[in-house]
Design goal:
The protein is mainly alpha-helical. The chain has a single domain, classed as lambda repressor-like DNA-binding domains (434 Repressor (Amino-terminal Domain), Orthogonal Bundle). Helices cover 67% and strands 7% of the residues. It is built from six helices and two strands, in the order H-E-H-H-H-H-H-E. A two-stranded antiparallel ribbon has the order 1-2. Helix 3 crosses helix 4. The radius of gyration is 13 Å and the shape is globular. The model is unreliable at 1-6 (pLDDT under 50).
Length: 90
């Protein structure tokens, strides 16, 4: 879904954004549950596709755990959306 140049751009940009978020009182939010339900898949199935546990997906959906950059890209790919559609700053 992502070409190499685009992925490098996102890798650098997302890392910079995360540093601002964690240092500036902002929080990273996501729409994983919304997109997952639109696709009609369970937390368990999404977890299996991303090679993590269902509990990890649950924690991310409930904003109790921030995924690694790799997992964020995997989630976006499995849900068929761009990473900036899936995650946002609040």
């Amino acid at each position: 879904m992502f070409d190499t140049k685009l992925r490098i751009y996102y890798d650098k940009g997302v890392k910079d954004i995360l540093q601002v978020i964690y240092g500036g009182g902002y929080s990273l939010q996501n729409k994983i549950k919304e997109y997952r339900e639109k696709k009609g898949i369970s937390q368990g199935k999404l977890a299996e596709l991303c090679h993590v546990t269902r509990q990890t997906i649950n924690a991310i959906e409930n904003h109790k755990y921030a995924p690694s950059l790799q997992l964020a890209f995997d989630l976006a790919e499995q849900l068929g959306v761009k990473i900036d559609e899936l995650f946002y700053i609040k």
